[in-house]
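Input sequence (883 aa), recorded before submission:
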Amino acid sequence: MNVVVVESPAKAKTINKYLGSGYKVLASFGHVRDLPAKDGSVLPDQDFEMLWEVDAASAKRLKDIADAVKSSDSLFLATDPDREGEAISWHVLDMLNKKRVLNGKTVKRVVFNAITKKAVLDAMADPRDIDVPLVDAYLARRALDYLVGFNLSPVLWRKLPGARSAGRVQSVALRLVCDRESEIERFISEEYWNLSALLKTPRGDEFEAKLVAADGKRLQPRAIGNGEEAGKLKALLEGATYVVDTVEAKPVKRNPGPPFTTSTLQQAASSKLGFSASRTMQIAQKLYEGVDIGGETVGLITYMRTDGVQMAPEAIDAARKAIVDQFGQRYMPEKARFYSTKAKNAQEAHEAIRPTDFNRSPDRVRQYLDADQLRLYDLVWKRGIASQMASAEIERTTAEITADNKGEKAGLRAVGSVIRFDGFIAAYTDQKEDGEQSDDGDEDGRLPEINARENLAKQKINSTQHFTEPPPRYSEATLIKKMEELGIGRPSTYAATLATLRDREYVTIDKRKLIPQAKGRLVTAFLESFFTKYVEYDFTADLEEKLDRISAGELNWKQVLRDFWKDFFSQIEDTKELRVTNVLDSLNEALAPLVFPKREDGGDPRICQVCGTGNLSLKLGKYGAFVGCSNYPECNYTRQLSSEGGSEAEGVALNEPKNLGSDPVTGEELTLRSGRFGPYIQRGEGKEAKRSSLPKGWKPEDIDYEKAMALISLPRDIGKHPETGKMISSGIGRYGPFLLHDGGYANLESVEDVFSIGLNRAVTVIAEKASKAPGGRTAAAALKELGDHPDGGAITVRDGKYGPYVNWGKVNATLPKGTDPQALTVEEALALIAAKAGKAPASKSKAKRKAKAAAAETKTTKTAAKPKTAKAKAPAKTKKSKE
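Predicted structure, token format:
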């Protein structure tokens, strides 16, 4: 019997079928140990000794693996073919050595880029040893991320309340978003004019030509800067005669792009399908691990975390054969295409993302996939096969035309493209981000027959005014593209980095654009002012390159850490003497457009609009930063920061309470006010006054008496439930709009529902939300059935009081923030259940037994067998803070 260790149970089941009864395939469920989220897990003063911890769930899995290995002939470590996969194999091997269960057994590492029978069997026939340099690169990356997160984040907490964390890659990605916002704020729009002529050939065909030269000079883009200049040129064109000088038809070949990498797949899925980076990776993971096709689980795509652009030779041969079968002989080029990566140091899984079988076209697997899986597979298949197809042949025609008005001349140009042979475009057409026009196709339009030296008739002269626009905000896709260009982050980190920025509330996404929030801009400004080096793009890219050189065996990982820590620790120490006033002065200057937006009356934006004498400045409170007056407490003007820089008019109006009327029952005044945490409604005065914050989406200027009364009167009684006789009420809580009935809550879709929902609909919502469970407890209705747990019992996704969660028996595991309940896979659910189950023993006696067992299994281990010396000076005791 041979034992094979993979990462997920889905892969384990499939691979066991491929290998047969002589093998036992077990899943590690990802990493089996990690650095504890506490001070002292990495010890710089002990040459970066790392202390690892195994949680209870992983300890059980390691025990299962160890028990199987005891009675086996050999062990095959078959985790994913990247840096993280290599690290998991190393952790498993290290723990098995500590358990002394190997006893000279053969241990081999196998990697396969696709979960197909051939790929797995070929890998098993060609094993290797653990790639030590790749593990060293993982250790260095893990230590760096820990040292930055657990030393820089506490500085933020002390000097910038409300900031949650900083990270080695996270903070640089945030800086990119904030820098783009600053560009937009500084941008000054400029006027320019475009002129064109609608002309007719002698054969009666019309076409448009654009003005490109005047006064014997070539016009640069946006050279016509005002209406007066445009008017003179238009007058010239209106009275001119037109003659074709030259017509040039030039054949152009357009070549296909390479198959997808992780970043290009995320970009294409964003622009074409509207998927977020994390959603793309969730679906790709499922396609990689396998889909049931006719009773057989088959991996449909190769490994999806890669920056390689080349396909394996056998895949290229298969693609060329499929091209002939599905498109025809002409679509297959004479020679196969080979691509090289533009990444600074491509690594990890070197083959591009491609279909495992090009004969398995999207139409053939349609019935086995859900809608999103099919759309993503269709994208991968088309891009993969297009990468080996013939070039598109395009004829580009350019006509140069002279306009002559009594000796005063101007030059015009008409350009058109015609696809003579579509080539790879028959399978896949590129689409650029942010509305840019694609280079594929005939975006210039098609010109009619135009001959040199013939006269043209003027039909109409068009003169249009334009204004330059600021650079667009980043989308997830364009930010990933920029990070890749700069050499920041790696394929396995892009989605996680973006998720961290959202979870920390440093950025929000609106219409697929990343908008930095006030706290995100404050963090970035702070780091740029006091930790400049560590948010510089070149420094971060250089560190990434060093990590890649470690993985190539060119650098010593401990030396890289020593060089980094020396300067970083010194910078941390320097901030201990930093006063909060120094921080605020620096932030006031760095974030002036955000903190001091221009006033409509043209006055000094730094002077208080209420008292007229105080100076406005950033202030730091328990929950973050706000703008306040230097004359406090005599002047209590405050304004909350917003991502748009706030509204000074709003601040003035709301700091002087706006009277909306009186409550007809109590007679107390209703007022609209602004506090540190935003606008709110208040009824009455003093400590007993009732207050209610404006719901998300409600603007102060839209609040009238009716809305104020409706809001301040919450909760709203809707009526008694026809079965229980108990009142159903609606309200707005910490987690949004809700219904309350008999101590149970049901979420409402919108704030408006709180004020409009009737009794019948409320009863329906409650019925859909809750069902009676054993013991009389109210259980949430299942949102999705995921299947059975390996130990028996159904796994479901449910919607609870505090958001969606996974349920298995008595175990309830909350879904991480931002996770789509409908997209959750069985493997992800099992990992959440395992993590939760490890924290909640069933009884005290059982808990003691488990704790004892866990202590034996999770005894702290170390990466180097060196005696423990003094603890590092630098890290302060902090809460968990990861990249």
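Checked by second reader. The mean pLDDT is 84.
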